[in-house]
Amino acid sequence: MRASSAVTGTDLIEATGLTRATVIAVCDDLIRRGWVRELQAPKGPGPQKGRPARYFAFNDAAGCVLGLDVGMATVTVLVADLKGRVLARTSKRFAKEPATAAQRRATITHAVDQALASAGLGHPAVLAAGIGVSTVVDRHGNVAPGHRLAPYFDLGLQTEVWKEYGWPVLLENDANLAALAEHWCGAGAGVDDLVVMLAGERIGTGLIESGRLLHGSSGGAGEVGTLELVDGVGSHDGIARLARRWGTELLASGEPTLIRDLVGPGTTRVSARFVFEAAAAGDAAAADILERIGRRMARIIALLGTFLNPELVVIGGAVASSAAMLLPTITAELPRLSGTPPQVAVSGLGDAIVATGAVRLALDYVEQNALGLTPAQPQQDPRALS
């Protein structure tokens, strides 16, 4: 029913192989539970013979799910219906460091409340919340201790923050959720051997093998934290950080470059955006920086191709649209570096990629546990609960 606008009892019999009596009994039960709506039968031409067919539809307004991307500086919240359609989006910046755990929790809850209000929904409408965090999360959904960023994200989000509402709260690594998002509705849709790289400030990867998300024994699969051992790479710095650093060095060198005109007089620090803009305008020095970044990314992708043999590697996150300029260098370099070079693409999901994956995580939970959950209000749009 989720995949269709409306189905008849006959449609369901053909799809399931069940008897008519069983199909109708199950549909009536799902209607009582609030997961299914019965639609008015369309009127055909002329008089109808016999009992009219009953039409059923999945009640995508039986509740909603939340998808959160909790980063170091910003939290983004998506509210989606039960077919995954986004109803509202909100982003909030955390207080400047050192922000306390209480301050970070307050910003997160404020962002959620604002997103629900924008969607016209109340807290009882939420059936599950997925949250992506920028640190290692084990396969049981817990922040793995012992990692540098763990204290910023071990905030009691699963147990303390929304306990008054009783929401199922599911925690996952941000790159893993990026992989779920791409596999669900992005460039990796239908690709079961997939790597998704979040490559803005630091390199992190989500790995899908045979359609299944990989975590590793303690959640560290895809962390690529030892890139300093790779010749020609040397760190896990991402595309934006490298462009910013090398652009700033170029400006300080005094070499002629359009970047200087873009940043304006008296500015010594270069943002990544200006490096890409200058290269697009034909600036040779800026283009050289992108060439260096492209060769570096090709080495990382070749390493992933050698060990994991994915069909596709997707570069995602806020830098994805700019990263398209790196593809010619990457694709030219890969055959020289790997005997099994994967295809490479950039994501079209933008900076919502992690929150989109968090929505998918929450929807998976609802689908797997539907009979143990109570819809917001049977046969009623949950927006009425606000």
| C-alpha geometry | globular
Low-confidence stretches: 378-386
Q: Which CATH C-level class of the largest domain is it? A: Alpha Beta
Stated plainly, the CATH topology of the largest domain is called Nucleotidyltransferase, domain 5
Assembly state here? single chain
Instruction: Summarize the biggest pleated sheet.
Output: 5 strands, mixed
Helix content: 25-40%
Mean pLDDT comes to: 92
* DSSP strand count: 13
Order of the strands making up the biggest sheet: 6-5-4-7-8
Query: Strand portion, in percent?
Result: 15-25%
- What structural category arises from helix and sheet content? alpha/beta
Distance between the termini: 27 Å
- The CATH superfamily of the largest domain is known as ATPase, nucleotide binding domain
Second-tier CATH architecture of the largest domain: 2-Layer Sandwich
Which series of helices and strands comes N to C? EHHEEEEEHEHEHEEEHHHHEHHEH
Number of helices: 12
Give a description of the structure.
- The protein is α/β, with parallel strands linked by helices.
- It has 3 domains: 7-58; 64-181 and 352-385, 2-Layer Sandwich (Nucleotidyltransferase, domain 5); 190-348, ATPase, nucleotide binding domain (Nucleotidyltransferase, domain 5, 2-Layer Sandwich), CATH 3.30.420.40.
- It has 12 helices and 13 strands.
- The strands form 3 sheets. A 5-stranded mixed β-sheet has the order 6-5-4-7-8.
- Strand 10 and strand 11 (212-213) form a beta hairpin.
- It is globular and about 85 Å long.
- Mean pLDDT is 92; it is low at 378-386.
